[in-house]
Write a structure and sequence with these properties.
This protein is of the alpha/beta class. It has a single domain, classed as TIM Barrel (Alpha-Beta Barrel), CATH 3.20.20. The chain has twelve helices and eight strands. An eight-stranded parallel β-barrel has the order 1-2-3-4-5-6-7-8, surrounded by six helices. Helix 1 links the parallel strand 1 and strand 2. The chain is globular, with a radius of gyration of 17 Å. The chain starts with a strand and ends with a helix. The structure holds 1,3-dihydroxyacetonephosphate. 1,3-dihydroxyacetonephosphate binds next to strand 8.
């Protein structure tokens, strides 16, 4: 069975005390994850080690960086390399979140380099894709997302691709309270899996976890995660409330 994943993206929120309290509360609230389930906390860089220590003894709960550098090392002030993440034991990193694509002007080509960096360091990239509202209005979302996958992932070998997690996050659903319907999520996830199948074959395509992100909350997680090609969620706002995120994690198949 594919890994089912509940990933929290705390974005640029919380003080250290608030962050550690939230992680501790979550661990108290959560029901133990099954073998095929994972919980991942994408936390601000300064808190990676602190949160990692809190979750260390809980099976199948991990931390993720929210980004990484496209470069291995050197004169890149303010950036964090995958080697640095690896050296503190971080095993996951978000790559290509739409907020970074928008505010840091991250291109598909740059994201391909970040994916390469992650894989070289044994870090699982959680690769984010998804269309803006005008593309959805024109019903061109399938081609838009395929293009993102092609330019950032399809240079990988099948073995490499199998180490990637994909998160589909339609930009119009992020932080807007406007969730995609479970049909819209399933349709796009099936489309993504078909694109993977054309490029890499059915076995590889079936093995990749594809998460949905965009206004996931406890009240809609069951419905969204029940869809056959949806393997969990990448959760922003609702992950800042321990009881909400615990309920979302419990909704994993
Ligand atoms: P929201 O859950 O707040 O809509 O954010 C989604 C997201 O961007 C997760 O990466």
């Amino acid at each position: 069975m594919r890994k089912q994943i509940a990933a929290a993206n705390w974005k640029m929120n919380l003080s250290l005390t608030e962050a550690t309290t939230l992680a501790e509360q979550f661990l108290q609230e959560m029901t133990p994850a099954k073998n095929h389930q994972l919980i991942v906390f994408a936390v601000p860089f300064p808190y990676l080690t602190a949160i990692q220590q809190i979750v260390a003894d809980t099976p199948q709960v991990f931390v993720a960086a929210q980004d990484c550098s496209a470069h291995a090392k050197g004169a890149y002030t303010g950036d964090t390399s995958v080697a640095m993440l690896q050296s503190i034991g971080v095993q996951y990193a978000l790559v290509g979140h739409s907020e970074r694509r928008e505010y840091q002007l991250e291109s598909n080509e740059l994201l391909a380099q970040k994916v390469n960096q992650c894989l070289a360091a044994g870090i699982t990239p959680i690769f984010c894709c998804g269309e803006p509202s005008n593309v959805r209005e024109e019903e061109k979302q399938a081609g838009y997302v395929t293009h993102q996958l092609k330019e950032s992932l399809f240079h990988l070998s099948a073995d490499e691709l199998q180490k990637v997690v994909i998160a589909y996050e339609p930009i119009w659903a992020i932080g807007t309270g406007k969730t995609a319907t479970s049909e819209q999520a399933q349709d796009m996830h099936a489309h993504i899996r078909e694109a993977l199948q054309i490029q890499y074959g059915a076995e590889v395509a079936q093995s990749i976890s594809i998460l949905y992100g965009g206004s996931v909350k406890a009240a809609n997680a069951n419905e969204i995660f029940s869809r056959s090609d949806v393997d969990g969620g990448l959760v922003g706002g609702a992950s800042l409330v321990a009881t909400e995120f615990a309920a979302i994690a419990q909704a994993l198949r």
